[in-house]
Each structure stands twice: as structure tokens, then as C-alpha cells.
């Protein structure tokens, strides 16, 4: 299984920071996970109509302006393991499966 990597950009002024949490903003996990799944779906061979998050762990907060890197590998068709890193530390990890329009894995 080959480990690949790509940058993942989330703007420092993303609206989710405003209310999460006042005085010490951190990126909500759902925004982080959504960005990762969207990026991974774009890498699939065919059109994806559904994704299934099989696991997700949030390990460290992401602060506004931190650069993120998405490391990923595919252990099988349509399945991707991922880890998100900021400043050399793991901030989230998980596994997602993608389903194509015909119900098959892309």
C-alpha cells in the first residue's frame, strides 16, 4: 500500500472558527472531516454518489491558519485510509469507503 500526500487548505477565516470556540477558535471536526472526504472523493476513478465514513478519530485541535497535509493510502478498491497532519503532528485519522452511481466501488 503506497502512502500518498496532498495539501489540504482550509481558510484561516473559515466561518466555522467564529463560534467554535470564542476566544480560542479551533476547527470543528466535522469541517475537517468534510474537507478530507471531499478531497479523497475527487481522487476516485469514477463519479462518487455516496461515501461511508468507517472510522474517524480527532487527535489534536486545528488552529486558524495552520497548514494541513492529507496523507492517504488505499487498502482496496474504493476504500481509503487517511491521516491529517498539521505542523508535523497528527490531527485526525480514519477510513472512508466510496460508492459509485451503479452501487459498485469506484
Question: Which short descriptors sum up this protein?
Answer:
single chain; mainly beta; 5-stranded antiparallel beta sheet; 5 strands; 42% strand
CATH topology: Thiol Ester Dehydrase, Chain A
Number of helices: 1
Strand arrangement across the biggest beta sheet: 1-3-4-5-2
- Apparent shape: elongated
Strand content: 35-45%
How would you describe what is shown here?
The protein is mostly beta strands. The protein has one helix and five strands, in the order βαββββ. It has one domain (4-14, 24-100): Thiol Ester Dehydrase, Chain A, CATH 3.10.129.10. It has one helix at 29-42, and strands at 4-8, 48-58, 68-76, 79-86, 89-100. The protein has a five-stranded antiparallel sheet with strand order 1-3-4-5-2.
Layout of secondary structure:
Layout: E1 4-8, H1 29-42, E2 48-58, E3 68-76, E4 79-86, E5 89-100
Antiparallel strand pairs: 1-3, 2-5, 3-4, 4-5
In short:
This protein has about 110 residues and is mainly beta. It has a single domain, classed as Hotdog Thioesterase (Thiol Ester Dehydrase, Chain A), CATH 3.10.129.
